[in-house]
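Problem 12. The chain below contains 274 residues. Write out its predicted structure in token notation.
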Amino acid sequence: ALGEAKMFLKIVCVVFMTFTLCKGQGVDMTLTADTYGAEVVDAVVDKLHANCLFNNDRLFLRRLAYVESTDGSDPKTYRQGYDGGIWQVDQDMFTATKTCSAAIKRECDVILKEFGIDWTKVTWDQLRMPLYSGIGATLYLIQRLASNHVIPGDIPGQADIWAHYYHLNEPVGTYIIEADKATQYNCNGELDLAFLMDSSGSIMTSDYKLQLDFVAGVVNALPVASDKVQIANVVFGTLAKVAFHFNKYSDKQDIIDDIEQTPKDNGGTNTPTA
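Solution.
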């Protein structure tokens, strides 16, 4: 349960950074050429995963951006005559994805539908925009790996994939040394976190208890305070209701106690009201 809570916190932190740092002043930095930084990379990865593109990559795409270009901050990233962008998608790699072959047809269709990008009409210089570079890397990897390979979760295993399928003949040690730096997030900023819990009859009592324990475990791992992390809880069944608001509790144990005592509705599953 603790491991799941830590992974949840990492996801919360990534989403938090994506929306607070990449949506500022109405400018989408993922579609701005020659931009860089961890927040930009996180936003690109979040966009792709939210549309089920390479969402089983186990942090590989995120780490790859750091290994290839230090999230675009390496001076060589946007060098003259090279347009591969943050993920350093070479021109021949990009060209290999242009026809949207059967191996990546589904992904190309999703990209067209969700982002309005017809990949067959994209030019290499557009990969200077982070989203396009991330898409190019994703399509290339899916096409190269096909259905015969599963991305390993461990960094050495990913390093082997990188050296054999992406950055050919590069020492695996390069990936191993740099990759872990990409996923060391700082989650010490202020955060309002609301949980949405299903208490309907479609959830077995034992599973409902697991849900309560998981949420309580996440809260226990957070620095709860009025100037750090505030928690709210919404529960839905036949109807949705706010179990408690952000400003109700400042003590972590009070929040955990409230969560663990949340009654089960056992009614319908009225998700839209939530």
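Discussion. The chain has a mean pLDDT of 88. Students who got a different answer should revisit the alignment rule from Section 12.3.
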